[in-house]
Amino acid sequence: SSYTKGDNRLVVATDSQKNTVYYLAKTLPAATVMVPEAFAAAIASFMVNKYAHVTACRVKVTTKPWERMQFVGKTHPHSFCREGKETRWTEAVVSKAAPPSAATLTTTLTSGFYDLEVLKTTNSSFTDFWRDELATLPDMPDRVLSTKVLCQWEYVAKSLDDLQGTDYNAIYAGAKRNTLDAFANDPRAWVNASVQTTLYVMADRILNEFAAVDDVYYALPNIHYFPFDLSPFGLKNLRTDAEVYMPIADPSGLITATISRQPKGKL
What we know:
- By secondary structure, this protein is α+β, with helices and mostly antiparallel strands.
- The chain has 7 helices and 9 strands.
- The chain folds into 2 domains: 1-63, no CATH class; 67-260, Urate Oxidase, CATH 3.10.270.
């Protein structure tokens, strides 16, 4: 009748279904929640037992596992990544100088990686930003920070001869290592732990380690996870009690910057 007559009295709203999943995620044992088969079965059982008119419930749980970052053989207490999901790329542009007969070639070589997804559960903040009548976001002295990193760098050398002997694999590995280490461990990113500061610290470390790199560009989209408010169901899940988080889709911020060794002229 809900389809043919517009009678919604037996419809369990999708919002109620969402609340059920978060409620069970908070109240069930971790050993159940962390195993997709057990969690799916628990949700389905709850629904058919709670609603007498529901004769069957299909629940599909997909898992996107996070791995703890490791540094010097030790797992990090609050920083995670999805290892091996990023894509490495490079672009080379070789041009003839004018006039073409001069046979002088100029090379621009750019490399990078994208889709390196990272998350940390503390040591990130966003406070003391511009306040006016349109600002509704509260100060966040501590929060979950997650992003999907795009990092690219351009090499100093502008000729094929000068690029000979450059250890590209070492620079790629170092750029990734510095990105993860700055995100998780660099105290400069803890004191002023906005995405903007974290971006600068990442790029600064790469430029300091690799003289062959001329500039570093990062694009860091905000991937938001906010604690789900379970207070309507008599449960605490905010601030220090937060255990169950809700992913938030667009709109969200995109933080970008290019950090260079030397100022570049404006076009």
